[in-house]
Amino acid sequence: MKKIYKSDFTLWDEKLVLCSTDQGVCSLSHTMPTIAEATWVTGEAADQKNHIYMEDLLAYAAGARTAFNWSYDLTGTPFQLEVWNALQTIPYGTTRTYSDIADMIGRPQAVRAVGGAIGRNPVLISVPCHRVIGKNGKLTGFSSGLHLKRILLDIEAVPYND
Description:
single chain; two-stranded parallel sheet; 34% helix
């Protein structure tokens, strides 16, 4: 059975849930992930395990961190994992379109499927789905709300059309 360390914390007045395993971060979102067959560790033990991740997020929020050197323990389909890996190659302060991501993974016709995979990204911020915008430069869907996407892009000084 997988041991998952769950920490609750607040960033930009957003209540977030950070979960990790011994292999790496498995979730960063507003809600508790649904993970079958797990032993949950909470409180001080979880916060000790997740301390470095939370510190990195605070540094990012302050504009002092531009990259995350984290290990991940992501669960998804092979296609989703491929998309999430592609997201991690988008440099800080830049954006890509859904078409760009589809091209990056060698599936230029799978733009809608790419959008679906991005919408299921389990790790906000460090797997930077916020850096994906529409072809016209407009902000498009973001599972945590466009207000948070604006905050993240503003931190990175990324121009966008609202």
